[in-house]
Amino acid sequence: MHDVNVMIVDDDDITLTLLEHIVEELVSGEILVFSSSIKANAFLLSEDAQRINLVICDWQMPSISGLKILETLRIKAKDCPFFMITANPTKELVISAKRLGVTDFVAKPFSADDLTQKLSVLLEKISQT
Description:
Elements: E1 6-9, H1 13-26, E2 31-34, H2 37-45, E3 54-58, H3 66-76, E4 82-86, H4 91-100, E5 104-107, H5 112-128
Parallel strand pairs: 1-2, 1-3, 3-4, 4-5
Helix pairs in contact: 1-5, 2-3, 3-4
């Protein structure tokens, strides 16, 4: 178990629940779950955002995209890892996300095992810093 605080953002309730269950198995810290990209972005603009050690976020959401949330995070926390989930990993998205400092990606549909493995590696790196 890693003692880190994780923020999860996805407008799809099924994916959000799956992500939350996987993260619960990996971390002992706080897990903040947002189904609204507007509320997630507002949270990142608040002083409370400083307590987040990892953001897991969908790319395509109504109102505010995952790229915009990544951009907001980089204003407040330049070094906080950002794990993006996307159903459409286009070249343009990858380039834009890398330019903004995305840490890693996973494409939908993903298996729980694949996601657990990627997050475990990322959480191990976070725990070492």
